[in-house]
Design a protein that fits this description.
three-stranded mixed β-sheet; alpha+beta; 6 helices; single chain
């Protein structure tokens, strides 16, 4: 029965619009209530039964938010938000791709050293490998 009530709520577009506007208004108030340097590293979750869920980008931000939580709740209440407590969680971000590490470049001195080594060697797999390396560098 509870599930059916929730489903009816979300199927009612007018109620959904009202809830979305309420959430946006609360998020705006939250951003104004947070210290400016922390606001950009967190986002609002759901407000349910007087508990506002806040997602922090990392543990350091979550710790600072926990330290300021009583002050944040007071500011929210003063602006009309019915929040008695905060639940602060660290958000797992998976959308960032790992940074590509640039391939190390060999300087002129290194290339010259390999060229001298290749010239000093007799025909062998090592000499072939060094020559192949120099060709791949485009400096042979």
């Amino acid at each position: 029965m509870i599930f059916a009530n929730k489903l009816d709520f979300f199927l009612n577009q007018e109620a959904l619009l009202i809830e979305a506007e309420r959430t946006l208004a609360i998020e705006k108030i939250l951003r104004a209530s947070l210290p400016q340097e922390l606001a950009k590293y967190c986002s609002m979750g759901r407000l349910s039964a007087g508990r506002l869920h806040i997602y922090a980008d990392n543990g350091a931000v979550a710790l600072k938010l926990r330290q300021f939580s009583s002050g944040i709740v007071e500011k929210l209440k003063a602006r009309g938000v019915d929040a008695d407590s905060l639940k602060i969680s660290v958000r797992v971000k998976t959308d960032k791709k790992p940074a590509k590490t640039p391939k190390p470049k060999m300087g002129k001195k290194g290339i010259e050293s390999f060229r001298e080594l290749a010239n000093s060697l007799e025909d062998s797999p090592l000499k072939s490998s060094i020559e192949s390396l120099l060709e791949s560098l485009g400096k042979r």
